[in-house]
Amino acid sequence: MTLKSGVFDPQGKAVGHALDALGFKGLGNVRQGKFIEIDLPDSLGADAKDQVDAMCRQLLANMVIEDYEIEIEA
């Protein structure tokens, strides 16, 4: 999950400044995010993505300020 475009990201800004201070010049925006990994039961099958989407909308993501992406791996 990352903050939506246009939402101020103080952690990303701090990381960007630190990278610049370390000599990594010419970088564009740096965005900070979080990664959540969930082991799903095999019984979800084709419904796995829909279930994870519901988890994000109901609890894991702040839909006002965050975007999220779902990847399902076998």
Indicate the CATH class: Alpha Beta
Query: How do the strands line up in the largest sheet?
Result: 1-2
Tell me the CATH topology.
Mth169, Chain: A
CATH homology group: Phosphoribosylformylglycinamidine synthase subunit PurS
Radius of gyration over all CA atoms, rounded: 16 Å
Query: Percent of residues in beta strands?
Result: 5-15%
Backbone shape: elongated
Specify the helix fraction band. 25-40%
CATH level-two architecture: 2-Layer Sandwich
How many structurally independent domains?
1
Distance between the termini: 21 Å
Largest sheet: 2 strands, antiparallel
What average pLDDT do the residues reach?
Answer: 95
Structure description:
The chain is 34% helix and 5% strand. By secondary structure, it is mainly alpha-helical. It has one domain: Mth169, Chain: A. The chain has a two-stranded antiparallel ribbon. 1% of the residues are buried.
List the helices and strands and how they pair.
Blueprint lengths: L1 E2 L6 H12 L26 H13 L5 E2 L7
Antiparallel strand pairs: 1-2
List keywords for this structure.
74 residues, mainly alpha, Mth169, Chain: A, two-stranded antiparallel sheet, 34% helix, 5% strand
